[in-house]
Amino acid sequence: MPKASDLRIGLVQQANTADRKENLAKSTAGVRRCKELGADLVVLQELHTGLYFCQTEETRVFDQAETIPGPSTEYFGTLAEELGLVLVLSLFEHRAPGLAHNTAVVIERDGSIAGRYRKMHIPDDPAYYEKFYFTPGDLGFQPIETSVGKLGVLVCWDQWYPEAARLMALAGAEVLIYPTAIGYELADDAPERGRQRDAWTISQRGHAVANGLPVVAVNRTGFEADPSGVTEGIQFWGSSFVTGPQGEFLYRAPEDEEDVAVVTVDRQRTADVRRIWPFFRDRRIDAYGDLLRRWVD
């Protein structure tokens, strides 16, 4: 029997193509399936309407950016209202000419925009040239109030930073959510691939433990070629997962398959776990001033 504290979260892990309509249709089918499985909230992966275009630096890609509100929020707003659930989107936001963001948008059950989060940490690595496209976020680390609770929505590269998770938790987030696009560069050997994927998982499980919060990470899967041919392309490693507030796995998706699942998290466990592991009580906030410095010499 479901409890009042239960939150049923849908995950849609998909492989994308350059065909926006095909990607939207796949996401829509995933969201509908989540609804059939009882979801209250559905999370889509990072930049789910198209390919992960940051493998190259091309000015024409800015044509893909869209306003918020705009085509995607209208499309998914209609879907959210029809199904009566909350959606977490991830979009390439056009803010002004030459100014764009990697933005997560939360759509409420009635189709309205509950809030947005602009990705704060922007990588610039081979095959992940995001600084060319995305201006760092300026909305801070504020949970988004919804009918299903306060959602601490962050995006991909943010998942490596304990400060981001902590600030969301301190602001009252009831769950940490990470739309993601990460994978292996095909030149990496098997041991290196394992180290990367394990580090990604461990980091986020650590955020769950340190903050006593469930964590939801939804990653894409499938291979996407590097249009420039400089690298061998990215094999996105899927592996979307949900943990409870002690870092325990509640669900793990496969690496190389598309996947739809609904996972129940019990928000009452957050309070229960924080009582036995009172990390917030024991924080030495008087001694953390150096965290505001780039480096401690």
Automatic annotation (TrEMBL):
Please report the stretch or stretches of sequence annotated as the CN hydrolase domain. 7-267
Q: Which UniProt keywords apply?
A: Hydrolase
Question: EC number(s) per UniProt?
Answer: 3.5.1.77
Which Pfam families does the UniProt entry name for this protein? CN_hydrolase (PF00795)
**Hydrolase listed as a keyword:** yes
Q: Which domain of life is it from?
A: Bacteria
Query: What Gene3D superfamilies does the database record attribute to this sequence?
Result: Carbon-nitrogen hydrolase
According to the UniProt entry, its GO molecular function terms are: N-carbamoyl-D-amino acid hydrolase activity
Q: Which InterPro entries match?
A: Aliph_Amidase/BUP (IPR050345), C-N_Hydrolase (IPR003010), C-N_Hydrolase_sf (IPR036526)
Q: What is this protein called?
A: N-carbamoyl-D-amino acid hydrolase
